[in-house]
Design brief:
Elements (H helix, E strand, L loop, with lengths): L11 E13 L2 E6 L12 E5 L8 E5 L9 E6 L6 H8 L5 E8 L11 E6 L3 H10 L8 E6 L7 H10 L3 E6 L2 H15 L4 E5 L2 H13 L7 E3 L9
Parallel strand pairs: 7-8, 7-10, 8-9, 10-11
Antiparallel strand pairs: 1-2, 1-6, 2-5, 3-4, 3-6
């Protein structure tokens, strides 16, 4: 992480909800307007704040879209018995407002041509969706995504469309830990320390995948981990 990765934390905005969806299971997608002048690097996250609720009034969410898509979108898991913040977020209707600080962060593309291996677990796909969309027209490097989910994969059709548009990008949709481990070993052996490795998911999954990469000889400087502050919050 560089000091410049935190520069965006000074930015404050108010954004308006355009649409909310519940495409699969307990996963919700919220699409907002982009205020004039606001921009970000694909892979960054923002701090979202709601007033008038009990307990913690903010959550950090990765931005799933790129600025060129014309909207600012987040996705999160909301259980049947959510926290007050998640309950209010789920109850929002088009036109409602929410405060945003950022976006900022370090989960971003590092250079012009190094291979990239992304490892997403569950809702951890959110920043990686933005990364892959931003690389859709880039044929200077290989990009592979290992995407693990218990059942359905959020954004699967959109991600498949990115692959169809760019033969340098490929995805393995998997459902269990053993499949993830096998894929990691294959691609770590293929790319070695010439690639960057992006981990996004629960702390447990990220720790396990980080350990496996290190066992394959991957240097810590080549591993980039999403902070995912809100992972596991209902």
């Amino acid at each position: 992480m560089k000091f410049s990765d935190l520069a965006g934390i000074r930015k404050k905005s108010t954004i308006q909800l355009i649409n909310k969806e519940n495409p699969i299971e307990d996963k919700f997608v919220f699409t907002f307007t982009i205020p004039i002048g606001l921009t970000w690097r694909p892979g960054e996250h923002g701090i979202f704040r709601l007033k008038g609720i009990e307990g913690k009034k903010w959550r950090a969410f990765s931005i799933t879209t790129t600025p060129l898509e014309g909207v600012l979108q987040i996705a999160t898991k909301i259980s049947e018995n959510p926290t007050p913040f998640k309950a209010r977020l789920r109850a929002m209707e088009p036109g409602d407002l929410i405060k945003l600080r950022g976006p900022f962060g370090w989960f971003t593309v590092q250079d012009e041509n190094s291979p990239i291996l992304c490892i997403a677990n569950g809702i951890g796909i959110t920043p990686i969706r933005a990364l892959l969309v931003s690389l859709k027209e880039n044929r200077s490097r290989e990009v592979h995504l290992i995407y693990a989910a218990k059942e359905k994969h959020l954004f699967q059709e959109e991600l498949e469309a990115v692959c169809e548009a760019n033969p340098k990008i490929s995805i393995s949709f998997v459902h269990d830990r053993d499949a993830v481990a096998t894929e990691i070993m294959v691609h770590a052996n293929k790319y070695g320390n010439n690639a960057y490795y992006y981990l996004s998911g629960s702390n447990r999954a990220n720790k396990s995948n980080h350990t496996l990469l290190k066992e394959q000889g991957i240097q810590g400087s080549r591993i980039i981990q999403d902070p995912f502050f809100g992972y596991g919050k209902r």
